Amino acid sequence: MTTPVRRPSGRMPGWAKALAVFVLVLAVLFTVLRLSLVPGLKDVLGTRTHDRSGPALLESLRDLSRYEAASGDFQVVVDLEKDTRYLPDAVRGTRTLYIGAGTVGAYVDLGGIGADDVRVNEDRTAATLRLPHAALGTPALDPERSYAVSKQRGLLDRLGDLFSDNPNSEQAVRRLAVRHIADAARDSELTARAESNTTAMLQGLLRSLGFEEVRVTYGPGSGA
């Protein structure tokens, strides 16, 4: 008696059918998201950004008596390199090329003017004012115009970044950019421009009040 030979069945096992359906669904979903075949679906399944920051708190109030007379825009290229002795830069070291852009304001402090710094003649046609020299404010770095052009890191530095977050990675170049901008502002004509603008402002103001001669000088006064 001969044993009949079984022919392989053309049906797929149940687990194979489920796997095929799952892969097909993933492929269709991926195609839809990539090609945007369904309008609005990308917005539904995409990521959303939530700003959960608290409200700003007013910590202090200060009365300002300074006249902001001039402002200068500055840009500096910072090339900061940090290396380790006896190790090549490819193993340990960083080099960052950073473009820093910011503004510096120049002002004249009118709050310290004393009674002897303002002199008016008897018929109120001439006035002499002695003001302190213009000073520079703190440089304000503009994050919209400041950016890192390139950043090179050694192997050990790259490995360290994988295991820890370093929010201070660019603070060093930002501080250096602010310092260079402050130096550039001191070497510029910004304070001279501020004193010239302050003189023009005061002369126009006092002449509109009837003064014919207005003289403004700068230097240490009684309020210094």
Describe the protein's architecture and organization.
- The protein has helices at residues 14-35, 41-45, 155-163, 171-187, 190-208; strands at residues 66-83, 93-109, 118-120, 126-131, 135-136, 140-141, 147-153, 213-218.
- The chain is α+β, with helices and mostly antiparallel strands.
- The model is unreliable at 156-160 (pLDDT under 50).
- Evaluate the radius of gyration: 35 Å
Order of helices and strands: HHEEEEEEEHHHE
**Helix proportion:** 25-40%
Number of helices: 5
**Average pLDDT rating:** 75
Q: How much of the polypeptide forms β-strand, as a percent range?
A: 25-35%
How many β-strand stretches? 8
Question: Could you list some keywords that capture this structure?
Answer:
224 residues; alpha+beta; five-stranded antiparallel beta sheet; three-stranded mixed beta sheet; 5 helices
